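Q: Could you fold this chain for me?
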Amino acid sequence: MNGMSVSYRRGLMGAVLLGFLPLAACQSTGPVADVAAIDTAQGSPENIASLTAVIDRAPGQPEGYNIRGTAYGRGGQYKQALADFDKALQLNPNYYQAYANRGLIHRYMNNQSQAIADYTRAIQLNPNYDVAYIGRGNVYRLAGQIDQAYADFQKAIELDTTDPRAYHNRGLILQQRGQHAQAIDDFSKAISLRPTAPEPYNGRGLSYAAQGDDDNAFTDFNTSIRLNGSIAESWANQALIYERKGDRAKAQKSYARAVQLDPQYQPAKDGLARTGGSAG
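A: Sure. Below is the predicted structure, expressed as structure tokens.
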């Protein structure tokens, strides 16, 4: 499972200060960061009915419950997902994938201790399961336990994961620590693994900007917008570069777009106020 509700998009990192202007925080959204918009089709009655028919034909097989639980989770039906993962684990207490999937649901529901416990159990059952390290690392990062998060992402990378989330999220921590050259390397690796995900372009752009490389930062923010024009952070970051270049009109327009997409996104609101715009 790679989905997550939009409410978890905010507050993952503090703003990076660049001179007098606050650079919009790099939010961890979309598939690279183990977050995505709810896919209602996954939890549609038709899809659930089809998966239920599979379970009815083999009620003693845990895989069917795990698959249906995944569909429920991606459809935002978290209680039903938990029930299915519980059943899968009742049938097979060593089903490490079901532990990791249930951990993700607990994370959606902000049950951090339960999420960590499930991911940890998955790792105990399979110490080479990179997905569980990445999932637990995200829970630690959301909880502000940065050192533990870094260790989990590092472990997944040492296991030769091909999951771009490990590099993207380690890059976010390196960025938070001010290690921008290393962060750029990690974001670039994430991009090479999944070039169509906008989030690592946003992250890399922030680190380029922190190094004073506004041209590469601007290119990355524009690419992020091209890949997904509905992310407020991308527009706010683009606006910041316009602002730093002295183009207040374009900056104001981009800040306004960011506020339209996310009226609660403070860097965009502050930028709009600085450039003389109005959120109303």
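A (continued): Confidence is low (pLDDT under 50) at residues 1-22, 24-37.
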